[in-house]
Amino acid sequence: MGDLLFWHRLQFGFTSVFHYLFPQLTMGLAFLIVLLKVLGLARGEARFGQAAAFWIRIFALAFAVGVVTGIPLEFQFGTNWARFSRQAGGVIGQTLGMEGLFAFFLESAFLGLLVWGERRLGPRRHALAALALFLGSWLSGYFIIVTNAFMQHPVGHAVAPDGTLQLADFGAYLFNPWALVQYCHNMMGAVVTGAFAMAAVGAFWTLRGEHEPQARLSLRTGVLAGLVASLLVAFPTGDQEGKLVARHQPVALAAMEGRFHTGPYAEVNLIGQPNVAERRLDNPLRLPGVLSFIAYGSFSREVKGLDDFPQDQWPTSLELLYYAFHIMVGLGTLFIALMGLAALLLPGDRLLRTRPLLWVLMLAFPFPFIANTAGWMVAELGRQPWLVYGLMRTAEGTSRRVHPGQTVFTTLGFAGLYFVLGLLFLFLVSREVRSGPAGHS
Asked: Which residue ranges make up each domain of the chain?
């Protein structure tokens, strides 16, 4: 049973991590495309429309690969996680169905109009199509977040006579406080990804001396949007997310900081290595009281350590959770510093002449993908060992009829397929970048 659970978790983790590389880009770009279209209408300048057309093509490529890589996740609910689907399907099936029936079709329909319908629609209606695409993309994200938030903080449900979970209060489920905070935090992270991608392409064109109007526009838009979104990821959305974890998942908060012992003036650890066997953090560099303040708003507030909880309720991958959390926070801090420095150099076009920083912006685009992946790992590893927090353990959700060998075989198949898809995506995107904004005009 242990091997079965391990392989089911590994396959779902691998497929979901690879899949989310693409929705975080499309959701971020959807907002930035609307911004470019609106600015183009307001100022009447062709460069905004040309830049938007380029990013719509990048969006379309990422959307296509995201659809293909998302399909296996849906099937795994019925294969690898059949008992979970039977137990919780009466609740989470509502939002998963709404995501597919409403948001996905809205997004895909208007994407076609955006890619091929600009001449027929005209500037204003094409901008409205971009707005509809944005709404569909972000609505899709909300339904998925609501589904996950129920697993983190289950509300709006009742237990049926057969023991399954059924929806009792749709409003409470749909507007779960955990979902609202997690959604805002997640979407700002997606905007950071889109903004870094936009700034990287603008920096690339600037360094090559190509497509000067769109290079300057993409660079400026990416830097400013990236700075604002990075700040919003940290506060208030990240701050509120931390307070929710402290209130509802205190054992996860302790694990994130490698905190084994309860006490006041709880510290944030800048560095350190969790030593689970001896229940301590090795080689720590600490900021006393900061964790107490972040979690409860008071530097002297007591924060529980892992020793206050039964060990069978500790996150099952404690070290990985600790490092993922610190990677997420560390990269988020660097994003603010990098985009803040770049924004300071925007006046007078000083950024365009600062080639070392342009190189940094160009090469930094993968890091938001890493930070967002680490953030989701924190959320999912912190919830363990629960599949639905406090109601259903992860070990109780797997399918008994799918054997480890079958899961290993299909995981290898997915790995090969995703490797090919990843190479194809990178090739097509690099071709678009080399062609530039007017590559298909």
From this structure: 2-228+323-435
